[in-house]
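quick one, 241 residues, struct below
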Amino acid sequence: MSLKIKELPETERPYEKLELYGEKNLSNAELLAIIIKSGTKDETSVQIAQRILNLSYDPQMGDLNFLKSMSLQEFTQIKGIGRVKAIQLKAVCELAIRMSKPSNYKKIKVKNTDIMANLVMEEMRFEKREYVKLFLLNNKNEILNNIDIAKGGTNFANVSIKEIIYEALKIEAPKMILVHNHPTGDPTPSQGDIRATDKIYNAAMLFDIQLLDHIVIGNNAYKSVFEETKKLVEKLKKTTK
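---
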């Protein structure tokens, strides 16, 4: 039978340890144990937390990031995690996601693709379904507004071009950037992504709106549809010489 948290020395109890030494001196398991709060008759909350951390199926995602993609059902399947603890864990993960993104995108200047990708990376990289975001910019490349064009399970190729153009015209935005995620984690644009981007680019030009880029978000990685298209064109030129 496992020792209870109360039976451990004070300096080894997560709550007391945080008070004595500060949160930065706690391990991931100890921090997670504070959220879990209580253990079972067989395990302490720290042991349950460590068992959860051992579930990480992708080392590249890190010790904690995989938690963001876990569902309530997946949490409750873990021995020692019931409905309430699962809800607490999901709430903490969502707070982490929200804290990692700007509270307001407006007036952020997008100087390059890196800036745009980094703004949305933590928000979109763990999504299990496909989301499409439209960022509208002024002539200084400052963000005027951002809109969720499509949420969940939507193939980018099926996104409404009319809706995208309408949103830009509504606030007279001269420039825009599209961003969508690949739930597989691979940000390589599909042929459908490339074809749809070309259609949107040409439609926008008819209204003097410039599509600056279309960025595909993967697992801590991204690719520009524009850049990938350029590479394909260059490769084609080489093969036809």
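Strands lie at 131-137, 143-151, 175-181, 210-217, 222-224.
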